[in-house]
Amino acid sequence: MDKKLLIGGAVVLVVIIVAAFALMGGSTDSDPTHLTVAAHSNIVEPESGFNPLTGWGCGHQNYNPLVQSCLFKADENGDIVPDLATDYSISSDGLTWTVNVRNDVKFSDNSTFDANDVAFTFNTAKDTESDLDLTNIDKVTAVNDTCVEFKLVEPRSTFIYDLRYLGIVPEEYDESTYGENPVGTGPYVLDHWDKGQQAIFTLNDNYYGDTPYFTQITLLFPEEATWLELAKSGDVDVVPVATSALNQTVDGYQFYEVSAGRAQGVSLPYLEDTGLVSPAGSKIGNNVTADKAIREALNVGVDRQAMCDEIFSGHATPEFTSVDTRTYANPDAMVADSDVDAAKEILKEGGWTDTDGDGIVEKDGVKASFDLYYPPDYLDRQSLSTVFAEQAKEIGIEVNLVGADWDTIYQNMYSSAALMQQTSPDPYKSIYQQYHSKEADDFYMNPNLYNNSDSDKLMEEAMHTSDLTQADSLWAQSALVNGGGWGPAGDAPFVWLVNYDYNYFIKDGIDIGNQPDGFGNDVLINICDWTRTNSTA
After folding, report:
1. Which structural domain range is residue 515 located in?
2. Which of 169, 330, 462, 484 is 20 to 30 A distant from 336 in Cα terms?
3. How confident is the model over 513-532, as pLDDT tens digits?
4. Could you tell me the pLDDT band of residue 28, with boundaries at 50, 70 and 90?
5. Is the pTM of this model over 0.70?
């Protein structure tokens, strides 16, 4: 396709978006308390509306739902602290979580919030198509107006994260109308929604917390290709920075960078090809990546720092285990990288040699060659896949790049490598679902069907303890146990590569307060603390 047409199309889209929100009361007006935010691609426009029971604010990506508030929230240090809740306790067997809630809160429609709303929200989310996995909830009961009891199927130390991310809706909830007319206890209400363009939020007069400085938020949902032009227009206060614009500056804007533990890397099929297929008919196994020498060599031979510098202009750090920045990381599970000679020696000792002089090693007549699927719509993942393939070739491994949509990637993940990403601070998602043994179920977690009984045992112990400090220790141990484990110094089922920061252009004069590190995917996490220090928007 003609690049001029692509660029022209992007510019036209920017003009349409900017014109639309200007007419609707965006930040082109002179009111300094009006804020216009271009949402990052991790916050997509919700098809079913602003409804936490169908995914808004929670699930695959977690972010401030604005209209709703949650039982708990993250403070400026990143610690989970009460929000609608006042405190909680866990029974000795870990099966009952008792949460006490505030008695001074009203919903935006003036109805009174109480424990019945909490019980309704979680019971309903469990039974609907929520993006949260709440299958471990047995039942939720309001003990009285200010106390709610959660009965779990089995102990789960990570349940606090479910309490942290699900926005509470009123018991009088009507699924058919709620998404477009949400009622909540958060700092804002949905004023109106121009589908395909923007949503405008105004203050919730019933909000129980401090009144935010910004009385109106216009949330745009633009394509990544338009981000830089939106910033250059000067009419948008907060704009994400695309990988291609990391070296750019925009007059009138500050460059803001924050980590989110956004690990990106390559999933390598762990099982051999024995002719098995998944329930959906997807091929299982790859005889090249199932060889541990291949996985070890790639982990040792790639140069992660070079990727950070070349692709992300230094706005990333090397990533080895996918949870390097978390409290449950295990430094011993990491390896030294960028050692091509050591990688070649690993391959040689594993029986992989280049017998025909083409630069690609073979073993028993099989070339060290495999396909790597990646989503081409994401420039960072496309670039990372390309550099990974180039570096792999230096150690004698051929990586064939295949750009594809997510449905195609998921259909091939059990038999081919895939460029994956994970961000969740919840170890249930980032460790248990990612590495615990499972049968092929065509779900994107544990895409390589990794399995190790020693790691499984430690992960299960971490899940079942009610001591969260002990849980962190057990999660860390599961990465490297008895010479195996899911870390690169163990069985190395992944080649994790980089921790890519979230970056934003934020208009001069806007003070975003003390944001917690590790939550960069949710720039509005502390929106109630934001102010504008200059006199005009």
Report:
1. 1-45+195-258+503-537
2. 462
3. 998 888 888 899 999 999 99
4. low
5. yes
